[in-house]
Design goal:
The structure is a single chain. The protein has 186 residues and is mainly α. It has two domains: 90 residues, no CATH class; 78 residues, Winged helix-like DNA-binding domain superfamily/Winged helix DNA-binding domain (Arc Repressor Mutant, subunit A). 72% of the residues lie in helices and 0% in strands. It has eight helices and no strands. It is globular. It starts with 21 loop residues before the first helix and ends with a helix. The N terminus is likely disordered.
Length: 186
């Protein structure tokens, strides 16, 4: 006999988020907002889009707060929700860019002359932005946000080995794409 959605046993043990009040939720959100906003900004490359992603994630978490043990695991759920929203946004933005490119081809803009440190930072950010979604998310969470490989794996619903491989690929791709910058500094 097939189970309906309501008959499925809960995967969450202990005190659920049903007891999390709106004030508790706001306090949890405030405690994690800046870290998650930094991640989303680095992932999307746009602060305004990142703020929208964070707000959307908070809305979703608040609407479904009775499903998750937010009191204990708010940070990982928040990061995972934002990461998924960011991936979805990049995919839709890439699809839109392909449609626009098919209509009107655009030239790649040449880098502007700026302070050397800022130019290097822009090149690094661009190289990170060109990483595949999984590699970028793993790289940003571990290297930039300081999460362990295990925490990153849990946050992104991956295995430890998948995170390890993704970070290895990200570093290899970054080393290759940033070789002219590194060689230019020597």
């Amino acid at each position: 006999m097939a189970r309906t959605r309501d008959e499925r046993p809960s995967r969450h043990v202990g005190r659920g988020a049903a007891q999390v009040t709106a004030d508790d939720f706001a306090a949890l959100a405030d405690a994690h907002r800046l870290r998650v906003l930094r991640f989303a900004t680095a992932f999307l490359g746009d602060r305004h889009l990142a703020e929208d992603a964070v707000q959307d994630a908070l809305r979703k978490l608040f609407e479904h707060r009775d499903r998750y043990p937010l009191e204990e695991l708010f940070g990982p759920y928040f990061v995972k929700t934002v990461a998924r929203i960011c991936v979805d946004h990049r995919r839709s933005r890439q699809a839109e860019n392909r449609r626009i490119a098919a209509i009107e081809p655009t030239a790649v803009p040449s880098p502007t002359v700026a302070v050397e440190a800022r130019e290097t930072a822009d090149l690094v950010a661009l190289a990170i932005g060109r990483l595949p979604d999984r590699e970028r998310a793993c790289f940003l969470l571990t290297v930039c946000e300081g999460l362990s490989y295990r925490d990153t794996a849990e946050t992104l619903a991956l295995t430890y080995a998948e995170v390890n491989n993704a970070i290895h690929r990200a570093r290899t791709l970054l080393r290759s794409s940033l070789a002219p910058v590194v060689e230019g500094d020597r």
